[in-house]
Design goal:
The chain is an alpha+beta fold. The chain has 4 domains: 8-39, no CATH class; 44-154 and 164-181, Acyl-CoA dehydrogenase/oxidase, N-terminal domain (Butyryl-Coa Dehydrogenase, subunit A, domain 1, Orthogonal Bundle); 185-301, Butyryl-CoA Dehydrogenase, subunit A, domain 2 (Beta Barrel), CATH 2.40.110; 303-448, Butyryl-CoA Dehydrogenase, subunit A, domain 3. It has helices at 20-24, 29-35, 42-48, 52-78, 89-100, 124-136, 140-158, 162-177, 200-204, 301-337, 349-373, 380-405, 416-426, 433-443, 445-457; strands at 184-187, 211-215, 218-229, 236-243, 252-257, 263-268, 279-290, 294-295, 339-340, 343-344.
Length: 462
C-alpha cells in the first residue's frame, strides 16, 4: 500500500514550515483566532456559514439529491422521448419521493405546507436557491421536474388570495405529501412571443396570443402556450391571458384545471438538455374557467408575472451554480485520477490554474446568489444580474471542464456533457440573458433619467 502523498507537485506540503497553516500555528493565540483555520471541504465550510435552519435544509437537499436523483439521472436523461403526459417509472419515483419529503410543498410553512416554520425567518428566494443548486449539482432534468411546480404555485401565493390558496394549493400539497404528486405549471410563453412577455417594452408592442372572453360565471380562454416546463403532467396550470380586445396590460391569471374540456397538451419538445422534464405546448380551445379560478383581480396578471420572475430568477441563477459545481467536481476528480506522461494531471500547473479559475467562478456565482437572495424583497437588477452572471458562468465552467477532460468529456457517464447541456437552457428560460440585461437597465431607469436631467441642467450635452 502506497504512503499517502504529502503534497501536490509545485506546492509545499500542508505540514511544511512554509505552509500558511503550519506558520499560522506559531502565532500568538489572539492572532491565531483571526487568521488560522482548519482544512475543510468548501461545501461544508459554506454550509456552516449559514444560519442553522438553512444549513439543515442544505444538508437535507444534498442527501435527497444523492439518494434519489443520482441513481436515476443517467437513465432518465437517455430515455426515449415520451408521449405528452407520460413519465417514466424512474422519474415518477423521484417525484413521489420529492412529494413525500416535502419538496413539492415547501413554499408554505407547516401545517399549511411542509417547510420548517423556522425557515421563514429567512427570505423565500434563499430557500429556493439552496434547493435548485443542490438538485442541479446532481441532475438538471430531475431538478426541473421537481422545481417547476414551485413556479406554478408562486402566482397563487403571491396573489394573496387566501381562498384560492385554501381551495387549490393546500389540497395539492396534502396529496403530494401522501405520495400522489399534484403539480402546478406556469404558462406565459406563446408561439409568437417568448421573452416579449417577460419585458415591458416588448409586451407593449405584442398582440396577445391567448385571450380570455368573459362569459356568465367566468371566462373562456382560447390560444396556445409553449415551452411550459412540467405543463404536460401538471394538474393545474396558471395561464396568463389578455382580456378580449385588450393588450398585455390586461393580462389576468387563470388557474386552469388540466381536465377541463378544450384543454390539450399538443406536444412536448425533444430537448437537448433537462430531458427528464417535459416542455409542453398547450392548446386552449374555448376552455371555461370559473370566476373562482381567477387568480388575483382582472388585469393583475402582468404584476403577478413580473413578481414571480423576480422570485424565480434567483433559483435559476442557483441552477447555474449547481451545474458549475458539478463540472468542477468532475474535473477535479478526473485530474486526480488520470495521468499525462508519468504525472497525474493535478500535478501539472496549467491544470491547477484551470481548476482555480473554475473554483473562483463558482464561488463568485454562489456569493452573488446568496447576497441577492438574502433580501426580503427581491431587487430586479440583482435577480436578473445574478441570473445572467451565474448561468454564463455555468457554461464557462462546463466548457473549461470539457477542455480538461478531453475525449472523456463527451462520455454520457462523465456528467460534464450533461451538465453543459442542462446549463444551456438556464440562459434561455426565465427570460433570455439578453432580456435580463435589459431588465437590469429598466430597474435603474429612474437614476439614469435623473443623471440625464442633472447633466442637462448643468449645461452638459445630454
Amino acid at each position: 500500500m502506497r504512503e499517502p502523498r504529502r503534497g501536490l507537485e509545485g506546492h509545499e506540503p500542508p505540514d511544511s514550515a512554509l505552509s500558511p497553516r503550519t506558520a499560522f500555528a506559531r502565532l500568538p493565540p489572539v492572532v491565531r483566532a483571526l487568521v488560522r483555520y482548519a482544512p475543510r471541504d468548501p461545501w461544508e465550510l459554506d454550509t456552516r456559514s449559514l444560519p442553522p435552519a438553512l444549513a439543515r435544509l442544505r444538508r437535507k437537499l444534498r442527501a435527497f439529491a444523492e439518494r434519489h436523483l443520482g441513481p436515476a439521472a443517467l437513465a432518465c436523461d437517455a430515455a426515449p422521448h415520451a408521449e405528452p403526459g407520460r413519465i417514466g417509472d424512474r422519474a415518477r419515483r423521484v417525484l413521489v419521493a420529492a412529494g413525500r419529503e416535502g419538496l413539492l410543498s415547501d413554499m408554505l410553512p407547516a401545517p399549511l405546507g411542509a417547510a420548517d416554520p423556522r425557515l421563514f425567518r429567512h427570505p423565500l428566494p434563499m430557500m429556493a436557491a439552496l434547493k435548485t443548486e443542490e438538485l442541479s449539482a446532481v441532475d438538471g432534468g430531475l431538478m426541473l421536474l421537481v422545481s417547476a411546480h414551485a413556479l406554478g404555485v408562486a402566482p397563487v401565493v403571491l396573489s394573496g388570495d387566501l381562498g384560492a390558496i385554501r381551495r387549490y394549493v393546500l389540497p395539492a400539497f396534502r396529496a403530494s405529501l401522501a405520495g400522489e404528486p399534484r403539480l402546478f405549471a406556469f404558462a406565459i410563453t406563446e408561439p409568437a412571443a417568448g421573452s416579449d412577455v417577460e419585458e415591458g417594452h416588448g409586451a407593449a408592442r405584442l398582440s396577445p396570443g391567448v385571450v380570455a372572453r368573459e362569459v356568465e360565471g367566468g371566462h373562456r380562454l382560447r390560444g396556445r402556450k409553449c415551452f411550459i416546463s412540467g405543463g404536460d403532467i401538471a394538474k393545474d396550470v396558471v395561464v396568463f391571458a389578455a382580456l378580449e380586445g385588450e393588450g398585455i396590460a390586461s393580462w389576468t391569471a387563470f388557474l386552469v384545471d388540466a381536465a377541463s374540456p378544450g384543454f390539450r397538451v399538443a406536444r412536448t419538445e425533444l430537448k437537448m438538455g433537462m430531458r427528464a422534464s417535459g416542455a409542453a405546448e398547450l392548446e386552449l380551445d374555448d376552455v371555461f374557467v370559473p370566476r373562482a379560478r381567477q387568480i388575483g383581480g382582472p388585469r393583475d396578471g402582468w404584476a403577478l408575472n413580473r413578481a414571480t420572475l423576480n422570485l424565480s430568477r434567483l433559483p435559476v441563477a442557483a441552477m447555474g451554480v449547481g451545474f458549475a459545481r458539478a463540472a468542477l467536481d468532475a474535473a477535479a476528480e478526473f485530474a486526480c485520477a488520470e495521468r499525462l506522461g508519468n504525472k497525474l494531471l493535478i500535478d501539472h500547473q496549467e491544470v491547477q490554474l484551470a481548476l482555480a479559475d473554475m473554483l473562483a467562478d463558482t464561488q463568485a456565482a454562489r456569493a452573488m446568489v446568496w447576497t441577492a437572495a438574502q433580501r426580503r424583497q427581491p431587487i430586479q437588477r440583482e435577480a436578473s444580474g445574478a441570473k445572467v452572471f451565474c448561468t454564463d458562468v455555468a457554461l464557462r465552467v462546463c466548457a473549461r471542464a470539457m477542455d480538461l477532460l478531453g475525449n472523456h468529456a463527451l462520455l454520457h457517464g462523465a456528467h460534464v456533457e450533461r451538465a453543459w447541456r442542462d446549463a444551456r437552457l438556464t440562459q434561455i428560460f426565465e427570460g433570455t440573458n439578453q432580456i435580463n440585461r435589459l431588465a437590469m437597465i429598466e430597474d435603474v431607469q429612474e437614476q439614469l433619467l435623473a443623471t440625464i436631467a442633472r447633466l442637462s441642467a448643468e449645461g452638459a450635452r445630454p
